[in-house]
Amino acid sequence: MPAAQTQAVRLIELLATLEHAVLAERRPADQCFAGCCRAHHEWGARDRRLFGDVLFAFFRWRGWLAGLPPARALALAGWLDGLTHPALAELAAQAELKLPAVTPENLHDKARELSALIGALKAPADLLPDWVLPLLSESETATPQHLAAFQRRPPVWLRVPPEQVAAVLEFFNQPNPRAAPHPRLPGAISVKPPANLQGLRAATGVAAIVQDLASQCVGRWCAPQPGERWWDVCAGAGGKTLHLAALMQNRGTILATDVRTGALRELEKRAAEAGVTIVRTRHITDAGRNIYDLRFMIDDLKERGSSVASDERHPAGRGSHLGPGEQGLPGRREARSTRDTGRETRDARPETRDAQLFDGVLVDAPCSGIGTWNRNPDMRWRTEADDVAAKAALQGEILARAAQSVRPGGKLVFAVCTVTTPETTGVTEAFSHAHPEFRPDAVAHPLTGETQQGACWIWPWAGPCDGMFIARWRRLEKP
Asked: Is the separation of the CB atoms in 158 and 195 below 8 Å?
C-alpha cells in the first residue's frame, strides 16, 4: 500500500481513538496521542508530525466538522489549517472532495467556502461550545477577535538570556527566517515550529526554555528583586518559578509549592539543569481529599511549617524537596481565628511576625485554561460551563489564603491563563472589596509599556500567544 494511503488509514484510526479519549473520558488529546506514538515505534518523526498536525487541526475546527465522515472531516481540517500532504489528498479523494487550492485567511471567508463545500451553513460562533461566548471578557476587545484568535496556532515562544538572543536568531534563521525577537520583552523569541532546542544547544551552547509569551509577562509583572523572598503557590513544573529566579539573578529565596509531586520533581530537575540554586520545593498534601482540590493547601502549609529559611541557614544548592516538619515554609502572621482554635493567639513581637512573611507571593491559580484553546484545541470539548464557576470559587479561596503570607509593603500577584470574566475581574474585584489592606498596584503593561491600574490582559492575538489575566496588589504598610 502506498505511504499516503497507509497514513490516511492511520489518521482515521487515530481520530476515533482521540475523539473517544477527549469526549468520553475527558482526557487531554496530547497525552492520548503520545501514548499511541509510544505504542507504535514504527512511526517515524515525519509520520508523528503529520498525525499530530492533522488531528489537532480537526479539534480546532471540530465545531464545523463534527458529524462528518472521518475522511471528509480530516481532509477539511487540513485544508482549513492550510496543511498540504499526500495523505490529505488521499483523504479528500476518498471523500470525493475538490478542495480550493488556497485556504482563505479570514475566518468569515473560511466559513463561507466551507459552507459551500459541505452544503451546510456554518458561522464562526459554531467553533465553540455555546456557553463560552457570554462568559468571555469584552474589555478592550470584541467577540470576533476572540474567535479568530482561538483558531490560530501560535508560535513556539522561547526565553533566553537577553545577551544570547543574537546567537539564537542566527541559528533559527538559517537558511530561512523562522524566528523573531519580541520588540519589548527582553529575551523572548518566537519560533515557527518545530523548534530544535537540542540542535540549538549543540550549535550555540544556549539552553533555551520554552515559555509562552503570556507566561513570561507574569514574571515581568511580578518584578522580583535580587535577594527577595518569594512564594510561588501553585508552581507546577516551574516555568514561572525559574523565570522569577532568573529575574532575581539567582539571589534570594523562592519557595515553590504544589499538590502534584511529579510536577515538583520536574521543577527540581529543571532547576538543577539551569543552575538555579535558590528554589526550594514543598509538596502540599491534601489529607486524603481530592488531589485537585486546592482549597486546603494554604492551611496545610502553614500548619506544618514555621518560617522561610534564610540563605545562611540553607546554603545555596540544588532545589530540594522539603519533607514534613522541615524549614522553608511561611509562618502564620495573622491572629488565629477563634473559630479554628477556640482562642486567639498572637506573636509577641511584630518584627518576628513580619520576618516570617514573603516579599512577594505569586498565585498562578488553577483555571479553565480557555486562554490556551488556540494551543490546546481539544480543551474546548473537555471543558464545561460548570468548570468556570468552580475554578473561580477555588481561585478566590486560594488568593485570600495566600494573601496572609505577604509582608506589609509586599506584593501579591494573581495570574490565570483564561479570558472569562468570572475567573478574572470577578475574582479580583471580590478580593479587593474583601481585603482593603491590599491596594491595586500601578504597573506598566509588559507588552505595551502603558500604565495599568492593578491588572492587565495579555490578549491571545497580542503575540500571538496564550490569553492571560494578571493582577497585582501591594499590602499596605503598618500605620
From this structure: yes
